[in-house]
Structure formats: C-alpha cells, structure tokens
Amino acid sequence: MNLDKKKAVVDSLHEKLAKSAIVISTDYKGLDVATVTKLRAELTKVGVEFHVAKNTLLRRASEETDAALITDSFKGPTAIAISFDDPVAPAKILSKFVEDNEKMEIKAAVMEGKTLDMNGLKALSELPSREVLLSQVLSAMNAVPTGMVRVLAEVPRQMVNVLSAIKDQKEAA
C-alpha cells in the first residue's frame, strides 16, 4: 500500500473510531475467509462495521479517540468491530461467535471512554437489545398515565354507582 492509501485508511478509521459507541478488538487468527465473511455479514445486519487493518494503521487511527485505550491489544492479527449506535449488538454477536469458534478471541473493548474486561463485555452481551430496552421504557412510561386515567375515571364511576343506589333505595321506599 502506498503512503496516500495508508493515509486514507487511517483518516477513514479515525473518523469511524471517533464516532463509535463501542470498539471491540479481536484476534481472528486461524479463521478462514468464509467464516470471517459470515461474521461480517451478521455484524453488518445490525449496523456494525468489522475492519481488518494493519496494527500500525490501527494505532495511528485510534490516536485522540477512546480506542487509544486499547492500542496495546493491536498485536498479531487484529480486526475491530465498530458500532455507532447500539453497543449491545456487537457484544452479543461476537460473544456468541467466540463460543462457536474457538479460534477467534476477543482481545479488548472500549465503550464511552472506558475499557471493558471480558466480564463486562459478557454482561453487556446479556443485556436485551436496544429495541427491547426502548420498548420496555416506553411501556413503563405509558403505564403511569394509563393508571392515572383509570384512577381518575373510577371516581366519577363510583359516584354514579352511589347515586344509582340512592335512587334505587328511594324508589323502593
């Protein structure tokens, strides 16, 4: 690769790393092209980018970004997964993929300026997806006004029941 191409790769990766919600560094040594392509397709479905680049280019691209915290993991064959929105999706996919393929290994991860150890990444992968979390929040937010409307509607209903009972009592007398 000539110098101009290297600069373009570094600039592109730097821009992506700067906007990322989570970056996960992996060792893909021993995986064949078909397996990596399958993993890349799974990650792409959920909006995660999977890049294989030279470690020196990754180190330069990660300067002045949160990914600079994991530059010591850029040794050997390195690929990085970058998610811009949902940090849970790549953690889930990569954790499951590592369980199924013993040759692949997760080296390090960084999310919002903090490094994640393997326990933290595993805990993140066990969270529900972003859509499920949003639906849970919305249902909780919807439950409060719905309950309040029911309580407020019950007061007039009870009043009507009381008046109806008084009316029935007076008619009977």
From TrEMBL:
This is Large ribosomal subunit protein uL10. It holds the Pfam family Ribosomal_L10. SUPFAM superfamilies: Ribosomal protein L10-like. It comes from the Bacteria. The lineage of its organism: Bacteria, Pseudomonadati, Thermodesulfobacteriota, Desulfobacteria, Desulfobacterales. One of its GO terms (biological process) is translation. Part of the ribosomal stalk of the 50S ribosomal subunit. The N-terminus interacts with L11 and the large rRNA to form the base of the stalk. The C-terminus forms an elongated spine to which L12 dimers bind in a sequential fashion forming a multimeric L10(L12)X complex. GO terms for molecular function: large ribosomal subunit rRNA binding. Belongs to the universal ribosomal protein uL10 family. Transmembrane segments: none annotated. It comes from Desulfoluna spongiiphila. PANTHER family: 39S RIBOSOMAL PROTEIN L10, MITOCHONDRIAL. Forms part of the ribosomal stalk, playing a central role in the interaction of the ribosome with GTP-bound translation factors. GO terms for cellular component: ribonucleoprotein complex; ribosome.
